[in-house]
Amino acid sequence: MKNTASNRRKFIKTTATASAGILVFNSQPAWSSPANNGAILAIGAHPGDGMFSMGGAVAQHIANGGTGTFLSLSLGEKGHSSIPLDEYGLMQQQAMEQSASAIGANAVFLDYPDAEIPFNEESSLAVCDVIRSVKPSIIITHWEGSWHKDHVNCYHIVQYARFYAGLKTLAREYPAHYAGQMFYAENWEDMDNFQQDTYMDISEVYDQWIAACAIFPMWRGETGFRYNDYYQSLATMRGCLARFPKAVAMMAAAGQSVQKIKKF
């Protein structure tokens, strides 16, 4: 996705400054209407995806007065080479519930098998139902440029689910709701053609978010990847570029509102 300094998607409405060819926003709510509940929904293929790559933004949103929910499409039960699937799946679920609670968020799970999340009408409608139930103003999810099959399918499921959720003529358990803004998280597994265009200051909640991530055994590198070092270093690096102590970078979905930045 090609962006210029005069055409940038917006996540947080506040004074913006141009830095390194990106749009930088401070951490203030993007909604003030009484009709808008300020909910954010982070949709990950697996629990760790949601907390590690989306949790910083969710934690900051909650600190700003909004509400947050994590939806995991599977438990990621096949992610450990020596712990039995049922046991590790339960560990993942409990870690997500505890870590979400630690930042003031809710956790919701679907029961698709790890590595076998299907992209079809059934899964799209299942996520549609969660969107209608939570009524988020903002959705954060995976970018499609991933080597991980579940992440790619999650991306496509969310595109369909967001459309279905806003379709008033589609009768479901909950009434229609359209999530007006959607962003893709910076995930080490989803970096093919990922182009960050929105940086969010998470300095206020950084320690809280890191403590929540540390509840996961995999955070400490037990499954082979040093998630702790990667995401902590990434928050520092993105903070350097955005002129914040700590920040997360996201990619806005195409077609959202734009905000023009005057040259200084």
List keywords for this structure.
disordered C terminus; 264 residues; 11 strands; single chain; alpha/beta; two-stranded antiparallel sheet; Rossmann fold; nine-stranded mixed β-sheet
Describe this structure in words.
The chain is α/β, with parallel strands linked by helices and about 260 residues long. The chain is built from 6 helices and 11 strands. It starts with 7 loop residues before the first strand and ends in a 5-residue tail after the last strand. The model is unreliable at about 1-20, about 25-35 and about 260-264 (pLDDT under 50).
The shape is: globular
CATH class: Alpha Beta
Proportion of residues in extended strands? 15-25%
Structural class: alpha/beta
For the sheet with most strands, the description reads: 9 strands, mixed
In which range does the helix fraction lie? 25-40%
Number of helices: 6
Q: If you compute it from the alpha carbons, what radius of gyration comes out, rounded to the nearest whole angstrom?
A: 17 Å
Spell out the CATH superfamily. Answer: LmbE-like
Summary?
This protein has one domain: Rossmann fold, CATH 3.40.50. The chain is 34% helix and 18% strand. The protein contains six helices and eleven strands.
